[in-house]
Amino acid sequence: MVKKLAVRTAGMALLTLSLVLVTACGGAGGTGSASGSGSAGGDSGSGGSTSTNNGASTNSSGAAKPSGNTAAAGKTPIKIGVLASMTGALESYGKQTSWGFEMGIDYATKGTKELNGRPIQIIVEDTETKPDVAVQKATKLLEKDKVDFLVGSSSSGDTLAVLPLAEENKKIMVVEPAVADSITGANWNKYVFRTARNSSQDAVAGAAAIAKQGVKIATLAPDSAFGRDGISAFKSAAAKLGATITTEQYPAAAATDFTANIQKIIESKPDYLFVVWAGANTPWKQLQDMKVQDKGIKISTGAPDIAALKTMNDLIGMEGFSVYYNSLPNNDVNQWLVEENKKRFNGELPDLFTPGGMSAAIAITEAIKKTGGDLNADKLIQAMEGMSFETPKGTMTFRAEDHQALQTMYAIKLVKKEGVDHPVPELIRELKPEETAPPILNKK
Fold first, then answer.
1. Chain-centre distance for alpha carbon 252
2. Which among 84, 132, 133, 392 is most buried, taking Cβ atoms within 10 Å?
3. Can you tell me whether residue 368 is helix, strand or coil?
4. Among 373, 439, 427, 431, which Cα is nearest to 402's?
5. Structure pTM?
6. By CB neighbour count within 10 A (0-12 exposed, 13-18 middle, 19+ buried), where does 317 fall?
């Protein structure tokens, strides 16, 4: 690859246009909250790693836990390194993605965690949402663990820092859930495939919800690759629909005081404020405290994760877009994910980034099946370019030109439903993959 007033955490890339990334790998059948409590992305511990191998898991201390599934015991494993924010501001995003990834491996292998008689080993490393740490952990995965694939990461900054390593080591990197356009644009290399949607796809969906001839829109996003790429894509999509931008506000990514930015937004007198945000330091409470909506400015953004939705009761009736909500897709894969997530996580539903992790896992397993188990990068690239595969969001297809997955998005309205403790994204209509196909930016 989107928020609410007073969201303390997972502000979801509330960006009406770019949500944020996620990635990490938690244990299948682990305990805890699938919705998370925090912000956006993390990986296991502070610098720790978690490894699962065909039913046997190894923690950072190296202690092995036996499992009943030993069919592939003794055979060389297929190793997948997952980079995710398992701690810090993006922790909840990272956990959602990692849990989804492990469920995806289980789904694609019918619970065996093996392909072609070889066990699949997942090694999760915490990037701490720091690009230098992401490089360190990716280097460890590539050089010490000798992984066959990289997956990640929860932030665009981390992901952009790691892309050159994938190329240098000739290893496929499946990007999930980072959304910056530059990942499949200016910084792309042929080893990069992305199951996450990018900023331009979010932008088209976000603009479709509010932009039209004569509408004035202000924007608010963090001063980061994620934020600026998201707003750039949104501006382009909104302009094509006849809207004008009154001001662009980019507070520091770690900012906690947005007073000056909000005041400038109010002074620009827009019809709408379009917000792109992710992380725990969200601007929603200050937007509420400064009575932005009382001044006739409508807020629009992407529907966030469940923790953030719980803070959005003042936005009931808002029209925007969603990357995913558990009740939006109507297909067998999503039905499996919903039921499996409830089994593993005490009845909780899959959250915003869970299906992305699952989609990345399915993409990798489908590619390996297509090559007959050959893990040579050139063979995998040939198999994956143009490849379609079924995910919780329906059919995804890796576009051959830039390896961006084309996928369904959702135009939604936030509604109140009896017995649900948060506003629910109600489907207005599906935005088909061809509708939200982003421009090709990699100059391949």
1. 21
2. 84
3. helix
4. 439
5. 0.80
6. exposed
Residue 1 one-letter amino acid: M
Q: What is the CATH number of domain 49-197+329-406?
A: 3.40.50.2300
3-state SS assignment for residue 421: coil
Q: How confident is the model at residue 51 (pLDDT cuts 50, 70, 90)?
A: low
> Could you check whether 49-197+329-406 and 200-327+409-431 share the same CATH topology?
yes
One-character DSSP codes across 99-117: HHHHHHHHHHTTTS-EETT
Residue holding tokens 């937004």? 265
Residue 193 and residue 195: Cα distance in Å, rounded?
7
200-327+409-431: CATH, from 1.20.1050.10, 3.40.50.2300, 3.30.70.120, 2.170.130.10: 3.40.50.2300
Backbone region of residue 190 per phi and psi (left: phi > 0; alpha: psi in -120 to 50; beta: other values): alpha
- Tokens (6 digits) for 66: 């036996």
Extract the runs of DSSP E, i.e. beta strands, from 143-263.
149-151, 172-175, 192-194, 216-220, 244-249
pLDDT tens for each residue of 379-404: 999 999 999 999 999 999 999 999 99
User: Which of the four pLDDT bands, split at 50, 70 and 90, describes residue 183?
Assistant: very high
